[in-house]
Design brief:
Blueprint: E1 2-3, E2 10-11, H1 13-35, E3 46-48, E4 54-56, E5 60-61, E6 67-68, E7 72-74, E8 95-96, E9 107-108, E10 129-131, E11 136-139, E12 144-147, E13 151-152, E14 158-159, E15 169-173, H2 174-177, E16 192-196, E17 200-201, E18 207-208, E19 229-235, E20 248-257, E21 263-265, E22 269-272, H3 281-289, E23 301-306, E24 317-323, E25 334-336, E26 346-348, E27 360-364, E28 378-389, E29 394-395, E30 398-399, E31 408-411, E32 414-417, E33 424-427, H4 431-441, E34 463-465, E35 471-473, E36 478-484, E37 495-502, E38 507-510, E39 523-528
Antiparallel strand pairs: 1-2, 3-4, 5-6, 7-10, 8-9, 11-12, 13-14, 15-16, 17-18, 19-24, 19-27, 20-21, 20-22, 20-25, 20-26, 23-24, 28-33, 28-39, 29-30, 31-32, 33-38, 34-35, 36-37, 36-39, 37-38
Length: 570
């Protein structure tokens, strides 16, 4: 202690020093608390929270919030994340890392167990939401996905098309490629594929399709090729009073589709239902064969024209076109009668009364369409048949004898079923030809095991007996093709028929009637198929096919029809 002389006061330097040190210590502690901060000030992407920890804003992560979170998408494949909680012994089955920037609701070390909106865990779930859809790596600096090869999109959510479809197609979603088939699986909008331009094929549309032609060895005998035969008619409409009130004239164009689906439009073609010298088959053929790329070979179009010029009768011009140089299935022709945009270029001649006639265009086929594969290539050698009409109770599509009950009618020959019976059958068959035809027809239901087929011919009737006499078609009638024995060329394509055997009258009944008038003396070769025809039923008893033991009400058949010039099925 020091004393100031004369003052009588003593000052302790130790006390003063201790007090000063305490003040400095408190001051330094306050300064340290005021200057504490989170790493890198959370990089401006978060708020500094308790314990000097950053709470990152949305789509940012890391200790200092400097890392970006990449977009999420439905995972193409799921994968377990491993030991996230460092438990070491085994993978945790519950939720871990709840509240993280990447997984705010937590995640799991095993495959994810998805929940519905009520929080219930769902069974057998897959394709959980994953960063970059689990098909890419996240660039944490930019917050953008670096997708693996074959994947693209902001979250790698799409499987990219190979080679960009090589410039010969468009990249489409799988549901688009499915066409009329409804596709609604997990990868809708994710899986992509190439829709190739006409004439190109392959996964990447790099393949060039070759042209189609008919194998010359195929038509070197009685076989004929089915090529597309198409019809179109231009008239003044059915509401007109017939010629000359319904007369039309002008120019139109034909849109032709080749076997690949590519469309070509002809030069304008002249038509006049008053002056039949204008236009006609020569102009139509010249326009078609003048299409670019020799899409229709010269001399390959057969054309026929018909028109009536009788008062009161429709004067519409009808054209039949057979494309012998374009085998395979061809889409129907379309006609353009508005070559000047909104102005009709084929119009009624009687312009004074436009209500009398209105230009009407229809295109259609009459039983002959092109095909790529002949499924009826087996000729039944030794069999030549005619198409006979049933004169005993059935005529012109109408039963002239009242049916007895709901399954047939009685006559001198016993009971005869009228279900699925056109009133026509295969005629002029003697006993040896009948035996040959049974052997050729063979199995009809795809089951040729012992006991299923009958008789020494190892065949199916395609029908069964309801009782001792009445017979009706089974689930599997037979299918045949009839080709004229006097075909004028290799392109007189045969016509398809469904048939079943009526044993009571020993007849091969035709289910569908001929599409054109048939002479009773016209003869046909019979071609058969290994294919199976099946009737469509509502199988309420789950038997798989029509059975004699089941009532019709338990297996009602499905019937349908088209209206003329329409592709709508009713």
């Amino acid at each position: 202690p020091n004393s100031r002389p004369g003052s009588g006061t003593t000052i302790s330097t130790n006390t003063v020093g201790l007090s000063t040190m305490r003040s400095v210590a408190v001051f330094l502690a306050l300064v340290a608390g005021a200057n504490a901060e989170c790493p890198n000030a959370c990089s401006g992407n978060g708020a500094c929270s308790a314990y000097d920890m950053c709470t990152c804003y949305r789509n940012f992560q890391g200790a200092d919030c400097s890392q970006r979170t990449c977009p999420f998408g439905i995972a193409h494949v799921d994968s377990p994340k491993g030991d996230l909680d460092m438990s070491a012994d085994s993978l945790t089955t519950g939720t871990v890392i709840s509240g993280s920037a990447v997984y705010p609701f937590g995640t799991e070390e095993l495959f994810p167990s998805m929940k519905d909106s009520d929080g219930d865990v769902l069974d057998e779930t897959a394709h959980y939401y994953m960063e970059c859809s689990n098909k890419g790596l996240c660039d944490r600096k930019e917050g953008q996905c670096e997708c693996f090869d074959g994947y693209e999109g902001s979250s790698c959510q799409r499987a990219s098309c190979p080679e960009g479809c090589s410039g010969h197609g468009t990249c489409e979603h799988i549901e688009t490629l499915a066409g009329d088939v409804t596709y609604a699986l997990w990868d809708t909008g994710m899986t992509m594929g190439c829709k190739c331009d006409p004439g190109y094929s392959g996964a990447d549309c790099s393949g060039k399709d070759c042209k189609y032609g008919i194998d010359p060895a195929y038509v070197d005998d009685d076989a004929t090729a089915r090529v597309s035969e198409q019809f179109y008619e231009i008239s003044g409409g059915s509401s007109a009073g017939g010629f000359p009130d319904d007369a039309v004239a002008g120019t139109y164009a034909i849109k032709f589709y080749d076997v690949f689906g590519e469309d070509y439009v002809t030069a304008p073609i002249t038509i006049s239902t008053v002056d039949t010298s204008a236009g006609g088959c020569s102009d139509v053929v010249a326009a078609l064969e003048g299409l670019p790329n020799t899409v229709i070979p010269t001399g390959s179009v057969y054309c026929s024209q018909s028109q009536a010029q009788t008062a009161g009768v429709s004067s519409g011009q009808t054209y039949s076109l057979t494309f012998t140089g374009n085998p395979g299935y061809l889409k129907p022709l379309t006609l353009d009668t508005y070559l000047d945009g909104a102005r009709e270029t084929v119009a009624p001649v009687d312009t004074a009364d436009s209500s009398t006639a209105k230009t009407t265009v229809v295109t259609y086929q009459e039983g002959i369409s092109g095909e790529f594969v002949d499924y009826f290539a087996a000729k039944c050698t030794g069999v030549v048949a005619t198409i006979a009409a049933d004169s005993d109770g059935y005529s012109g599509g109408t039963w002239t004898t009242t049916p007895s009950g709901s399954t047939g009618y009685a006559d001198a020959n016993g009971l005869y079923s009228y279900e699925m019976n056109s009133g026509y059958y295969l005629g002029s068959l003697d006993a040896p030809q009948e035996a040959l035809l049974k052997k050729c027809l063979g199995d009809s239901d795809g089951n040729d095991s012992y006991g299923n087929n009958v008789e020494v011919y190892d065949w199916d009737y395609g029908s069964y007996k309801i009782d001792a006499f009445v017979e009706t078609p089974s689930s599997h009638p037979h299918a045949i093709k009839l080709v004229s024995t006097v075909a004028k060329d290799d392109f007189t394509g045969g016509l398809y028929y469904l048939t079943w055997y009526q044993s009571t009258l020993n007849r091969f009944v035709l289910i569908n009637a001929p599409v054109t008038p048939t002479s009773s003396t016209a003869s046909y070769y019979v071609y058969t198929t290994d294919g199976v025809v099946e009737r469509v039923i509502v199988d309420t008893v789950l038997k798989g096919q029509i059975l004699k033991s089941e009532k019709v009400t338990a297996q009602p058949p499905v019937t349908a029809y088209f209206t003329q010039y329409s592709n709508v099925m009713y």
